[in-house]
Amino acid sequence: MAKKNLQTLKGFRDFLPEQALAREEMFKKIRVVFQKYGFLPLETPVLEYKEILAGKYGDEGEKLMYQFRDRGERDVAMRYDLTVPLARVVAQYQNELVMPLKRYQIAPVWRADNTQKGRYREFYQCDVDVVGSDSIIADTEIIACMAESLTALDITDFVIRINNRKILDAILKNSGIPKGKTVDAIRVIDKLEKIGEARVREELALLGIKTKGRQDLFEILNAGFEDTNDIEVKLAEYDGAGELAELVEILLEWGIKNYQVDLTLARGLDYYTSTIFEIILPDAPQYGSIAGGGRYDKLIGMFSGKDIPAVGGSIGIDRLASALEELELIKYDLVSDVLVCNLDEELEETYLRVTKDLRAAGLKVDFYYTSDKLDKQLKYADKKNINFAVIIGSDEAAKNEATVKNLMTGKQVKMKQTELVRNLKS
């Protein structure tokens, strides 16, 4: 029999226990923040009818969707993000949902993208959305929730880039963009960090923007702003300037100061309508944005026939984890607090009773299944980052005692078995 190709598909990964545990901890901390902000869980299926997802992400997104015909001859696709399925849910259940709907979802999505550093074909998104409110406060709360989620992961050095698609649309219109080419131009500007300004200028020229238009475009795109008043003054002629200034003002009220107004921020997805944002790690710029989102007031209307305002944000946990691993900021929690060693088959009943009592007290306890040399069992505990070992030999068992070894310091303490819970929890 030929040897099988024992590896994952390109862009797909396995997570061994240590990595999986770190990811679970990240999900747990993010979920706590989402719930703290009043967001409720919502789940959607992996597969959708292709027509639900088609036409929502632009030409590039269409190419990257995993799509196929199932056994029932239906054209289906794997979800590309969590936002379009949410829009379908709102349109389908709008008479049953309490508005404004505040939902979160933590789930995998799939894109047949080119793989590179921090970019995979299967990855998790941690989303929060507010549906049914056009208040700018909802926009800022999404950003505040994203920021607090990162802080909960002990990430303090990050920058929130913000913009408004209305401003970008107006700037492009003033630059002389031919009719029907605005969306294409936005996609080009979205590639600015990847391909550089010179290439972007070339591609904008191919879209029909003249030399003077390109010069004027980059003059305003590269403008800096000192405060909200400066935003309104410099962008006075553009629709969306007031919204952007108000967004900044409320972010400051939330206590968020690590923002940066960046008019080159475009967000490639077609469904954004006004506020857009991305979060980057200055110490790991090669990973691009690790979170982002914006307002999409027209998307749900594509399903329901009636526009319903919505705004959301998403943390890309896989890209974030890769960046943190490179920065050596990933924290691995302990799998177990204690290992109950197994030195004598005749003492099995004692070992199981002690294990059961420690677990009942809330401790995470591993039990060594077969009697073996103590040294081998302690090496096992060390490899699993277990801090304490409970050792009970025949002499200790006869006196209802146990020895607790601190595997970090090597110190050993003998005590009554009835004192194990109190000492190990202290």
TrEMBL record:
<dbReference type="InterPro" id="IPR015807">
    <property type="entry name" value="His-tRNA-ligase"/>
</dbReference>
<feature type="binding site">
    <location>
        <position position="267"/>
    </location>
    <ligand>
        <name>L-histidine</name>
    </ligand>
</feature>
<feature type="domain" description="Aminoacyl-transfer RNA synthetases class-II family profile">
    <location>
        <begin position="1"/>
        <end position="333"/>
    </location>
</feature>
<dbReference type="GO" id="GO:0004821">
    <property type="term" value="F:histidine-tRNA ligase activity"/>
</dbReference>
<feature type="binding site">
    <location>
        <position position="111"/>
    </location>
    <ligand>
        <name>L-histidine</name>
    </ligand>
</feature>
<feature type="binding site">
    <location>
        <begin position="81"/>
        <end position="83"/>
    </location>
    <ligand>
        <name>L-histidine</name>
    </ligand>
</feature>
<dbReference type="InterPro" id="IPR045864">
    <property type="entry name" value="aa-tRNA-synth_II/BPL/LPL"/>
</dbReference>
<keyword id="KW-0030">Aminoacyl-tRNA synthetase</keyword>
<dbReference type="InterPro" id="IPR004516">
    <property type="entry name" value="HisRS/HisZ"/>
</dbReference>
<feature type="binding site">
    <location>
        <begin position="271"/>
        <end position="272"/>
    </location>
    <ligand>
        <name>L-histidine</name>
    </ligand>
</feature>
<dbReference type="GO" id="GO:0006427">
    <property type="term" value="P:histidyl-tRNA aminoacylation"/>
</dbReference>
<dbReference type="InterPro" id="IPR041715">
    <property type="entry name" value="HisRS-like_core"/>
</dbReference>
<keyword id="KW-0436">Ligase</keyword>
<keyword id="KW-0547">Nucleotide-binding</keyword>
<comment type="subunit">
    <text>Homodimer.</text>
</comment>
<dbReference type="GO" id="GO:0005524">
    <property type="term" value="F:ATP binding"/>
</dbReference>
<feature type="binding site">
    <location>
        <position position="129"/>
    </location>
    <ligand>
        <name>L-histidine</name>
    </ligand>
</feature>
<dbReference type="InterPro" id="IPR036621">
    <property type="entry name" value="Anticodon-bd_dom_sf"/>
</dbReference>
<feature type="binding site">
    <location>
        <position position="125"/>
    </location>
    <ligand>
        <name>L-histidine</name>
    </ligand>
</feature>
<dbReference type="Pfam" id="PF13393">
    <property type="entry name" value="tRNA-synt_His"/>
</dbReference>
<dbReference type="InterPro" id="IPR033656">
    <property type="entry name" value="HisRS_anticodon"/>
</dbReference>
<dbReference type="InterPro" id="IPR004154">
    <property type="entry name" value="Anticodon-bd"/>
</dbReference>
<keyword id="KW-0067">ATP-binding</keyword>
<keyword id="KW-0648">Protein biosynthesis</keyword>
<comment type="similarity">
    <text>Belongs to the class-II aminoacyl-tRNA synthetase family.</text>
</comment>
<dbReference type="GO" id="GO:0005737">
    <property type="term" value="C:cytoplasm"/>
</dbReference>
<keyword id="KW-0963">Cytoplasm</keyword>
<dbReference type="Pfam" id="PF03129">
    <property type="entry name" value="HGTP_anticodon"/>
</dbReference>
<dbReference type="InterPro" id="IPR006195">
    <property type="entry name" value="aa-tRNA-synth_II"/>
</dbReference>
<protein>
    <recommendedName>
        <fullName>Histidine--tRNA ligase</fullName>
        <ecNumber>6.1.1.21</ecNumber>
    </recommendedName>
</protein>
